[in-house]
Amino acid sequence: AGRESINTEIVTLTRHLNEEQTKHREATGDFTLLCHALQFSFKSIAYYIRRASLINLSGLAGSSNTTGDEQKKLDVIGNDVFLAAMRSSGRVRVLVSEEEEEVVVFDEYPHARYAVACDPIDGSSNLDAGVSVGTIFGIYRLPEGAKGTKEDLLLPATELVAAGFTMYGASTQLVLTMKDGPVNGFTMDNGLGEFILTHPNMQMPKKRGIYSCNEGNSKYWEEPVKEWCESLKSAEKPYSSRYIGSMVADAYRTLLYGGIFAYPADKKSPKGKLRILYECGPMAMVFENAGGQAVDSKMRRMMTVVPEHIHDRSGIFLGSYEEVQKVIDVHKKHG
Ligand code: AHG
Ligand code: MN
Ligand code: MN
Ligand code: MN
Asked: Fructose-1-6-bisphosphatase class I N-terminal domain location, by residue (predicted)?
């Protein structure tokens, strides 16, 4: 009798990638190899994060990055691990990272066909408090003959071939989606050392009474944003507030439970805080593919926003379709 209760059809990330590749006869396997390198970087970053306090890796590195953030030791280590994995894959030509001022060009691989945008450690201000952090990534396919310059990355998220994030939380969760494809969630099985497909084809609830934003900024918000937030709190059934302060953690909860995450551009940060290439864009693709939507502070579809510079920021509203629609409708009313 026990047989049917044991699932022997375990789909690892490796098997999932092989099955995906098989669907595309013309595939060279380059993307699969790139994802294996990605997978290794997540396993490696998770390993450092979970031991940081034991090996003197917590706290500040004593430096700041080009976006003005004070770098944690783990920001720097995570960046080093990620870059080493992408470089050694031999499939990446050019890369942008939150922790690198300029694009990183891998000249030793002139024929590599992918460009990668990454936030090696997202939510790093929470690290020393043991709160969930993550890695966010977006993958672009280079046009034939590309030389690997920053222009190859100054693209809208509609051009991404794949995007996702890994959250280093109570368990290590990887969320991965391909262009116009489903969103698949994988959970790290530390015994096997494998990501296991646990959330196939994630579809968000169309609405949910949970809002996630830093209301400590509300005095700087534009009127429509203030009105929107007040409308949630004065609703017949007032919304719940959930804000972790790590975008990956707030996004993962919103993806699973529904609701809305917002980091609006405001009078203090007129361009917003979150970065387009390695936070807003990849997240927007995940949420759209899961049936949600994402807009910037001008109510433009987030996936169409093109950064001028690799570290450009944007306001963002990200979440269940109907919850983001509420923000859009309030802005329409304000004209
Ligand atoms: P990072 O740690 O990669 O610099 O990103 C931090 C971001 C994002 O994770 C989070 O949503 C946001 O900063 C929180 O900002 P506030 O502390 O201003 O709320
Ligand atoms: Mn940072
Ligand atoms: Mn971040
Ligand atoms: Mn970061």
From this structure: 12-200
Tokens describing residue 204: 């968000």
Q: Round to whole Å and give the CA distance between 330 and 52.
A: 44
Residue 49's alpha-carbon distances to 110, 121, 190, 325, in angstroms, are 33, 10, 14, 37
Give yes or no for residue 323 CB within 6 A of ligand 1: no
Report the separation in Å between the CA atom of 280 and the middle of ligand 3, taken as the mean of its atom positions: 9
85-101 residue pLDDT tens = 999 999 999 999 999 99
User: Which residue has a Cα nearest atom 2 of ligand 1?
Assistant: 123
Ligand 1 atom at shortest distance from the alpha carbon of 248: 9
> What pLDDT, in 10s, does the model give residues 161-207?
999 999 999 999 999 999 999 999 999 999 999 999 999 999 999 99
Nearest atom within ligand 1 for CA of residue 67 = 4
* Interval between CA 58 and ligand 1 midpoint (Å): 18
Of 241, 190, 193, 186, nearest in space to 213 by CA: 241
Q: What is the pTM of this model?
A: 0.97
- Cβ atoms of 100 and 86 within 8 Å: the answer is no
